[in-house]
Amino acid sequence: MDFNIALAQIKPKLGCVSDNLQLIEASVTQAVKNGAELIVFPELALTGYFLKDLVPDVAISLDSPEMTLLKRLSREIAISIGFVEATADYRFFNSAIFLDKGEIVHLHRKVYLPTYGLFDEQRYLARGDRFRAFDSRFGRMGMLICEDLWHLSAPYILAMQGATTIICLSSSPGRGLTEDERLGSTIAWQRLTATTATFLNARVLYCNRVGFEDGINFWGGSEAVAPCGTALSRGKLLEEDLVYAVMKEGELRRERILSPLMRDENLPLTIRELQLIAQEGGL
After folding, report:
1. Which among 70, 80, 245, 274 is least surrounded, fewest beta carbons within 10 Å?
2. Is the whole model's pTM more than 0.70, yes or no?
């Protein structure tokens, strides 16, 4: 089936959950007005990214008033959004949740927490331990959070579970200028989303935030990518934006017929070879 999506390229305020909820509600209202059936927000849209010691203060549980509001908003439109999740045993996760028709459909906890360059997530957050595809009214889907997508096994696992749409929520800072003054992180992400879509015969919905935190600038550039690797629509650079696209079933069907990579993928061979690597002490 065809479905209409919106990528909410917002500028969340660091540590201000209440203000960010207002921003999120406004984006939802606008997306519904423009006919979107699914809206995707960035990584940690409820809280901002460079939280550090603020993590316990902004974390919410799945039965919190904030989550109740998000459930209410999802009665009109499916929502994929990032937040800091608090568990009953006082662990905190960089999580993404998919809500629809007033209910929680799926929860993903970020597995790969970067600790290089500008990043220090493992100091403040617990790691997720699984990748799971899930069923939605838009077909089989999977969610990843930023760094997850840079590990080949993550989208591959989702695709092998039948995901035809991969949602990636991101808080990617702008880094590196090329000789022609293009942003290096923009080029890298566009290459990654196109390659992921192409090799997995899958749609990729990438939503990145904008704004400054601690002198770091987030670059935006959210995009909806077709299974052939072509960007259907892209958000502005360095500015807030609400990006729309139509995900057409015919594009998925055509690509899987013309380039049946998923049909021919040999999962038993992959599993056997990985087990051999593990047995030989390669992991």
Report:
1. 274
2. yes
